[in-house]
Amino acid sequence: MEKRDLIKGTRWMLLSKNLDKFDDKQKERFHNILATNEPLFKAYYLKEDIDQIWMQPNKEEAEKQLQYWCDRAKESKLPAMVKCANSILSQRTGILTWYDAKVTNAILEGTNNKIKVLKRKAYGYRDDEYFKLLLLGLHDTTVKELSKND
């Protein structure tokens, strides 16, 4: 069996956080894939280890873990992982800021997505003021009802 055929259809296992939801046959296949493909083996365990950054009790320990992970990613010599490590290191200050406030930008990203959807739905509107009103009322349920009726 070719390596490509062995790997085919296992993306969700590789990306999964919990292998317990797979049966024994799938787990065995998964372990065979990792045993036969060294780059995939390295990438998988780097993916698993990156979560350790957020498990640290304080910013200093997190910074050590982040540096450790980036060093390991660079040592892997996998181009995608080296690029990822360089990106993470260039953004390390922003990443580690999470330990100061424990706040994410998830709400902001969600609001940006809502604006993009509203903008797509508004394609063809001639009245910019109406669009501005919809933006201002994004979280108002009565405005949502009005925009559904358009």
Give an overview in words.
Helix 3 (24-36) crosses helix 4 (38-49) and helix 5 packs antiparallel against helix 6 (79-90). By secondary structure, the chain is mostly helical. The chain has helices at residues 3-7, 11-15, 24-36, 38-49, 59-75, 79-90, 92-96, 98-101, 106-121, 128-136, 141-148. The protein is extended. Among the domains are: 53-103, no CATH class; 106-148, no CATH class. It contains 11 helices and no strands.
Observed structural traits:
150 residues; mainly alpha; 71% helix
Task: Describe the largest sheet.
Answer: none
What's the helix count? Answer: 11
Rg over alpha carbons = 22 Å
What would you call the shape?
Answer: extended
Low-confidence stretches: none
In round numbers, the mean pLDDT is 83
The proportion of strand residues reads: under 5%
Q: In oligomeric terms, what are we looking at? A: single chain
Distance between the termini: 56 Å
The counted number of beta strands is 0
Order of helices and strands: HHHHHHHHHHH
Structural class: mainly alpha
| Helical amount | over 70%
Write the layout of secondary structure elements.
Blueprint: H1 3-7, H2 11-15, H3 24-36, H4 38-49, H5 59-75, H6 79-90, H7 92-96, H8 98-101, H9 106-121, H10 128-136, H11 141-148
Helix pairs in contact: 3-4, 5-6
Quick summary:
This protein has 150 residues and is mainly alpha-helical. It is built from eleven helices and no strands. Among the domains are: 51 residues, no CATH class; 43 residues, no CATH class.
